[in-house]
Amino acid sequence: MLNKYSELLIAVIKGLKFKKYKAAKLPRLRGKCKINNSGSLSIGLNFSAQGKQIPIYITTENKESELVIGDNVFINYGVDIGCSKKITIGSNVKIGPLTSIIDNNYHTLDSEDTLDSKPIVIKENVWIGRKSIILPGVTIGKNSVVAAGSVVVTDVPNDVLVGGTPAKVIKKLSINEGWIRK
Q: What is the DSSP-derived secondary structure letter of residue 117?
């Protein structure tokens, strides 16, 4: 059942099909944000997307796909989120421009490869830098930062800065309890 804010959003963004869509409060969308929702999409309070220079693409591929976005999440231009199974983005997450987050490789490498999707979890208060790539099966720990241009292929612990290709821990961060990244 859609709430009044979701119905308003549907009226504002014409031509989109929302299945199992819910938003707690009307999101702030600036520029182009293209949503292909064939699954389940849930967006928390204070969602903000800035697709002025390059459109943002958010896709749930099929009826089993589930994309959950927490409160106070900011997505910058050119971000591509492709969800075949499940992607969870925690509250207070900032995603830099031209970042890709995909839970499936979408192509087989050889005849023995399968196209299994692996869930991605981005925990609370994470900052993902410009042109980063988050690959299937990764969990990024609370309060962590992914440096610009990084390719994340393994789990990231809480409270660290990671960077590189593949991303590795660069340093431990000092995070006070309850501190929220701005």
A: -
107: annotated active-site residue: yes
Handedness of CA 99, 106, 103, 3 (dihedral sign): positive
Residues 32 and 52: their CA atoms lie apart, in Å, by 6
The tally of CA atoms less than 13 A away on the side-chain side of residue 153 is 7
Instruction: Please tell me the distance from the alpha carbon of residue 169 to that of residue 162, in angstroms, as a whole number.
Output: 4
Res. 172: pLDDT tops 90: yes
Question: Nearest CA to 149 among 161, 165, 131?
Answer: 131
> What pTM was estimated for this model as a whole?
0.84
Q: Which of 69, 24, 65, 20 is nearest to 49 (CA)?
A: 69
For every residue of 41-59, DSSP letters joined together read: EEE-TT-EEEEEEEEEEEE
**Of the listed 1, 4, 11, 107, which one is catalytic?**
107
